[in-house]
Amino acid sequence: MENWKRNLLICWLGSFATSSALSQVAPILPLYIQELGINDLSAIEVWSGIAFGSTTFVMAFFSPFWGKLADKYGRKPMLLRASLGMSIVVGSISLAHSVYQLIALRVIMGTISGYNSGSITLIATQAPKDKAGWALGTLSTGAVSGMLLGPLIGGYLVEILGVRYIFLVMGFLLLIAFFLTLFFVHENFTPSEKSLMSFSAIWQSLNDKSLIVGMFVTTFIVQMALFSIEPVITVYVSTLSVHTDHLAFISGLVFASSGFSSILAAPWLGRLSDHVGAHKVILMALICATILFIPQAFVKNEWQLMGLRFLVGIATGAMLPSINTILKQNIPSAIAGRMFSYNQTAQFLGVFCGSVFGGQIAAHFGIRTLFFSTSFLLFINVLGVHEYVYKKANKKFAHAVSHST
């Protein structure tokens, strides 16, 4: 097996383990906070939000720092740092005795995380140019699968082991990711003796600044749009379904439908982007998502919503891999770690802002209004991508094809 393919396999497994470990915490945080002595329902909700959001918020600001070190010392050391560090911290959460200790450990977790972003950088710099779309699309399914199955695994294990032991299981999963990376990921990287380029020097080295910035903005808007809906899906399902006794299960199916379709579609759409250009795939995906969010405001039952979410998942399965492919094609490999980390920052900030603003819009104007605002946000993104990304990338792609024939 070629080195980059073996690395892709291990990074997929590592991304799955990391994402499943992180997402397992979502349904059990309120239970753990209650076990730590917080009994008031509103207080549990507040502390759960702080505990969950603090990790993502901190990740947004530390991602560029780890990306900088990845460019200087290599991507594999960053994967080892993230997996081992998170294994220790997540396992330590099981020893927390107060909600303040829990928050502190969640903040530390956000500080040292970064396995998935490191994997993206490693595969993007190693995969052949004509296989980059497929490789990054396949890699994304590892993280999506982990995010999808994590809550299901966590909810099941809580029934068997109890809340505290779940964090030990998560730590063990991350430790497996560490050893897989240590023994099976190979990277030919020579540490630079020179001082790393400053941000201004990096900015000047970019040939097409507006295209790169356009990708960062697209990442932010896409994540903000998607995660403005996620926190209120369960509430929306409760207004649609007559099966209130199985609300959690039905909501889980609605959540899972978009993730499942993304897993199925991402490798195929990645391969398509290698043939027709990632700029075309992402533009069509954005247009489809813009359209598909509107009918979700008019559904009459949970099954209609599930079907539309399945279709949205196909569109979203094309977005982030296409963005990463476009970035790979337009940045020097020497600064790839930092550029992908900047994109990760945009992604984390989008998740954070989407969760906050989505809940506010739903509370003040109604959940159905949220689908229209999300669609409008994506439509603005379509116009920006067409103007600053599609037109330029289309010319470059056509030029490259003409010279290869």
From TrEMBL:
One GO location term (cellular component): plasma membrane
GO-annotated molecular function: transmembrane transporter activity
UniProt KW keywords: Cell membrane, Membrane, Transmembrane, Transmembrane helix, Transport
Bilayer topology annotation: Multi-pass membrane protein
Keyword Cell wall biogenesis/degradation: no
Subcellular location: Cell membrane
InterPro entries, per the entry: MFS, MFS_dom, MFS_trans_sf
PROSITE patterns in the record: MFS (PS50850)
Pfam families on file: MFS_1 (PF07690)
Domain Major facilitator superfamily (MFS) profile: 7-393
Principal location listed in the UniProt entry: membrane
Segments crossing the lipid bilayer: 47-66, 78-97, 103-125, 132-153, 165-185, 206-227, 247-269, 281-299, 305-327, 348-365, 371-390
Source organism superkingdom: Bacteria
Coiled-coil parts of chain: none
Identification of the protein by name: Putative MFS family arabinose efflux permease
